[in-house]
Design a protein that fits this description.
The protein is an alpha/beta fold. The chain is built from 15 helices and eleven strands. It has a five-stranded parallel β-sheet, sandwiched between helices. Helix 6 crosses helix 8, helix 10 crosses helix 11 and helix 12 packs antiparallel against helix 13.
């Protein structure tokens, strides 16, 4: 894989270059000035560009737009100290965003995601046991018939260990990483004994459920074979990409993926802290597609379905004004006056109680104009 780096801080460039090369990525060019990257970048035939967002000459968001115009196949990863850029990053088709200071493990996950996305599509795996790991909202396992299997987790740690190994998608995880993750406060000897016991319990639980899901151990590291299970979040994201820009023909599937298959945030009910980055990435991906679908339905489709989407957006992102304005427009069109008032008052109350703010000028102006009419 060939990478191009743009960051106005030279030390940050050097650090990123070292981390990428350690995980087998070739850095073909580095730039401190995004304008030079736009001039010279297309000559390097890079697979991915890592772009800092906050740069004085030209911000990373504009750089991304112009780079992708010159190199349509170029993947974009944003590197930023501010996570409020995340929604905008995914609107620009970035494959990921990484927060500074960049952590090697987080960067390795980004590279693995890039490799999966750029690989030649393979036929859907047909495991003999048909194991599907369900990660939306809470952890469960489904068999080939789609029914949830009753797994007797001996302890919550054995369940979390399985979830984390599956989350790593076949990558090896060292014992030290697992000890720090699962027993950070325990002394080394006790933590090691806990790990061995937990692995044993996990293997027994999977065997008792009739699941041929091997947990391999090699040179101080564990891994769950990637071919042993499918993750429903991976399938969801793959299908979401396949139906994009399908207009009315794909809208039924689009709504199914957004309203039914996305049953809740990634492992949200389990409360795993290590899942937070992936949880937020998938939430932003959902929001990006929900906005697109709701806008289409509002203008060219079914208003009732647009209402459902905006309501779900509001539930998931209560401080996002888009959903309130979308609902107000739709209710106004349908003559549901009380609902328009309710949405504006709800937005006022939510913003005031949560962040001490008022509705933005656009939505306030729309509301005032509607009242005047």
């Amino acid at each position: 894989m060939r990478a191009l780096l743009v960051d106005d801080e030279r030390l940050a460039l050097q650090s990123m270059e070292r981390m990428l090369e350690r995980i087998g990525v070739t850095v073909v060019a580095s730039f401190t000035d995004p304008r030079q990257a736009l001039e010279q970048g297309p000559n390097y035939a890079a697979d991915v560009a890592f772009l800092d967002i906050e740069m004085p000459a030209m911000d990373g968001l504009e750089t991304a737009v112009r780079l992708q115009a010159a190199c349509p196949s170029l993947e974009i990863v944003f590197v930023t100290a501010y996570d409020h850029y995340a929604v905008k990053a995914f609107e620009l088709e970035a494959i990921d965003y990484v927060l500074k200071p960049v952590q090697p493990k987080r960067l390795a996950m980004t590279i693995e995601r890039l490799r999966r996305n750029t690989a030649v599509p393979a036929p859907e795996p047909q495991e003999e046991n048909g194991v599907l790991l369900c990660c939306f909202r809470y952890l469960s396992i489904a068999g080939s018939d789609g029914r949830r299997l009753d797994i007797h987790w001996r302890t919550m740690k054995s369940k979390e260990l399985f979830a984390y190994l599956a989350h790593m998608r076949g990558s090896e995880v060292t014992k030290d990483t697992l000890l720090e993750l699962l027993w950070p406060e325990a002394d080394l000897s006790k933590a090691m004994a806990n790990l061995h016991t937990t692995v044993y319990q996990l293997r027994r639980a999977l065997k008792a459920a009739g699941l041929a899901v091997p947990i391999d151990y090699n040179d101080g590291a564990y891994r769950l074979a990637a071919e042993a299970v499918q993750l429903d979040v991976d399938r969801w994201e793959r299908e979401l990409g396949q139906i994009r820009n399908c207009g009315a023909e794909g809208m039924k599937d689009h709504l199914r993926l957004l309203l039914q298959d996305y049953r809740g945030d990634y492992f949200a009910q389990e409360g795993y802290l290590w899942a937070e980055n992936e949880r937020e990435r998938l939430r932003i991906k959902w929001l990006e597609h929900a906005r697109e679908a709701a806008s289409y339905l509002e203008s060219d489709g079914d208003p009732s379905e647009a209402i459902r989407l905006y309501q779900r957006m509001q539930d998931m992102f209560p401080l996002l004004e888009d959903s309130y304005l979308g609902l107000m427009r739709l209710y106004a069109r349908l003559g549901r006056t009380s609902e328009v008032h309710y949405q504006y008052e709800k937005l006022q109350r939510t913003l005031s109680e949560e962040v001490g703010a008022r509705p933005g000028p656009d939505i306030a102006s729309w509301y005032e104009s509607w009242l005047a009419r």
